[in-house]
Amino acid sequence: MDEKRANFRLARVLLALGGASLVLGMLAGLARIEWPTRLGGPAVASHAPLMVSGFLGTLICLERAVGTGWRWALLLPFISGLGALGIALGVDGARWALVLPGLGLAGLYLRLARRPSLPYLLPMAVGAAAWAMGNALWALGRPLDTAVAWWQAFLVTTIVAERLELARIGLQGRAPGALFLAGLLLLWASGSLALTGNPLHRLVAGLGMALLALWLLLYDVARRNLRLQGLYRYMGVALLSGSLWLAVGGLLSLVAFFAPELPLRDALLHSVFLGFVMGMVFAHGPLIFPSVSRLPFAYHPVLFATLALLHLSLVARVVGGLLGLAPLRSWGGLGNALAPTLFFGSVVGLAVRGRKGRSIRPAERAEGGHGRAG
Ligand code: HEM
């Protein structure tokens, strides 16, 4: 079996490892929102690292490793996937292991960024370093919200720079560049402020995310996709609705600074982590899944239904949380777990169907055939 095929086989195993963290992370989240699950204490408490490192960190590292073709890079998703499961099982040392993939990923980006055509990889390297920092702070036993501020910087930075990578947003002219940089610098500054326990970090993070959301809504060509058909339109709707949630998360973070007594933590965190981050996974999934697994992908409108479920259930959860309606918040939370389950179930189902049909080549169908760097 040639090395390339061996890499793709390994990539599918690592994809499943990331999937295991997603399932455990969702069950832990459901337990935290008072749905009966059989999960034990350590697993329930590791909801956030399972989602941020075990699922998203693994997926991001895997995408880069497959894209570069560097075999050593496949170690990164392996460590983040296994490390997160180790934490869910209560293996304490696993917390420090989770610092490594962030450092490795930052190194990978810096190596790629030496190519002059790839400036957007520099912010990604900072994002990856923020991931390592968040995990190191968590391993040191610092307050969870300090680590959360760095995990948020990691995921938001990676996604906005990824949009830049897909060349859908050029830094033409001064305004887009200034808005982009101001948003990122504020987001990174919020992590440093959180380190000192300064409540200003909510204000600064809120401003940063609101500016980045504005940047995406003004300059992302996703709006043009709305006029197209099929997968293009689906991706356009997913991208824009995700950016709207980033704006909501930014605004709620600002309100949380001025009114810290309000019960906003759940709403502001999941506007960003579910509405924006998971929303962007739904948008890019049709690109990422086939390019990582080398399985064909045939678009189907069922993806729209999973996207609608994600957003409507999140609206229910946020409104329930803000108005103190616990049942609405809980049912919304259940919908938040059902949506990714149905989405990934559909993507795998469509891949299996595509394989039987062998109709199309994966990436060609998505986003106008632009290749991916590294
Ligand atoms: C799938 C559905 C999800 C459910 C039901 C869920 C549930 C919860 C709950 C109930 C909390 C405690 C919030 C509070 O303070 O009141 C929480 C916290 C958190 N969640 Fe989620 N969540 C979900 C998805 C996600 C995703 C996808 C991410 C990340 C990408 C995420 C990241 C976090 C973080 C960082 C925290 C704060 C740390 C903590 O308190 O453990 N969650 N989640």
Brief summary:
The protein has 374 residues and is mostly helical. Helices cover 77% and strands 0% of the residues.
If you had to describe this structure to a student in words, what would you say it looks like?
Residues 360-374 have low confidence and may be disordered. This protein starts with a helix and ends in a 17-residue tail after the last helix. The chain is 77% helix and 0% strand. The chain is mostly helical and 374 residues long. The protein has helices at 3-32, 41-45, 47-68, 75-88, 94-97, 99-112, 121-139, 144-165, 174-195, 200-219, 222-225, 230-258, 265-293, 302-323, 326-357. The chain has a domain at 1-108. The chain binds protoporphyrin IX containing FE. Protoporphyrin IX containing FE (HEM) is lined by residues 26, 29-30, 32-33, 47-48, 51-52, 56, 144, 148, 151, 265-266, 269-270, 273-274, 277-278, 333, 336-337.
Keywords:
mainly alpha; 374 residues; binds protoporphyrin IX containing FE; globular; disordered C terminus; 15 helices
Helix content: over 70%
- The parts where pLDDT drops under 50 for at least 5 residues are 360-374
Class inferred from helices and paired strands: mainly alpha
Order of helices and strands: HHHHHHHHHHHHHHH
Output mean pLDDT: 89
For the termini, the CA-CA separation is: 23 Å
* Distinct ligands: protoporphyrin IX containing FE
Measured on Cα atoms, how large is the radius of gyration? 19 Å
Q: Per DSSP, what share of the residues sits in E-state strands of 2 or more residues? A: under 5%
Overall morphology: globular
Largest sheet, strands/sense/barrel: none
- Strand tally is 0
Tally of contiguous helical segments: 15
